[in-house]
Write a structure and sequence with these properties.
Elements: E1 17-19, E2 25-27, E3 43-48, E4 65-67, E5 83-91, H1 99-104, E6 109-117, E7 128-133, E8 145-155, H2 163-184
Antiparallel strand pairs: 1-2, 3-8, 4-7, 5-6, 5-8, 6-7
């Protein structure tokens, strides 16, 4: 990420602009208002964590927890726009087999960024929901039920000329999300219906 020297850094220490792989600049500004997410957000998605394409951790060094896209209905909408979103991920760590995972965390709700789409860089023929939880877990947790509270949309799905450009934009997405979490505080993701 490259900051513009003419623009002072935000109080969070995150540069207020980020250079995209295409050479364009994208402002890192809060999404929504200081009072929280604006309609149609927050959106709710949930499902079991399933095995994905195996690229997040191995190839990109950005691990993801994937949930099935079949029957995806978010906020009453059957078709969700492809793109990158941010919000909170809640994991059911009470499931048998998750004892080590539960001991390693300080709670079960974590900040996340996620991609819903076709991953044009990889030429996928299957749409996917890939969630990067902004926490380092000691083990995989396939089969664990995950609830997502989506607070906002960051950007549309893009194609890339290189893996490095893709990784750079994902890291920028993470910084944009990190910048916005201060507005929303702690959430009770378990209490939704």
């Amino acid at each position: 990420m490259t900051s513009d020297p003419a623009v002072p850094a935000a109080s969070t220490g995150i540069p207020p602009t980020a250079k995209l792989s295409s050479g364009l600049r994208r402002a890192i500004i809060p999404i929504g208002t200081s009072s929280g997410p604006e309609p149609p957000y927050p959106l709710k998605i949930e499902g079991p964590v399933v095995k994905g394409f195996g690229r997040g951790s191995k190839e990109l060094n950005i691990p993801t927890a994937n949930i099935p896209v079949e029957g995806l209905s978010v906020g009453g909408r059957e078709e969700v726009e492809s793109g990158v979103y941010f919000g909170w991920a809640g994991l059911d760590l009470g499931k048998e087999g998750n004892e080590e995972l539960a001991k390693s965390t300080n709670g079960n709700v974590f900040p996340m960024v996620m991609s819903i789409g076709w991953n044009p860089f990889y030429k996928n023929t299957i749409r996917s929901v890939e969630v990067h939880i902004m926490y380092t877990f000691p083990t995989d947790f396939y089969g664990t039920h995950m609830k997502l509270l989506v607070l906002g949309y960051i950007r549309p799905e893009l194609d890339y000329v290189s893996k490095e450009a893709l990784i750079g934009d994902i890291k920028t997405d993470i910084e944009i999300a990190r910048y916005d979490y201060s507005k929303f505080g702690v959430v009770d993701i378990d209490g939704w219906n």
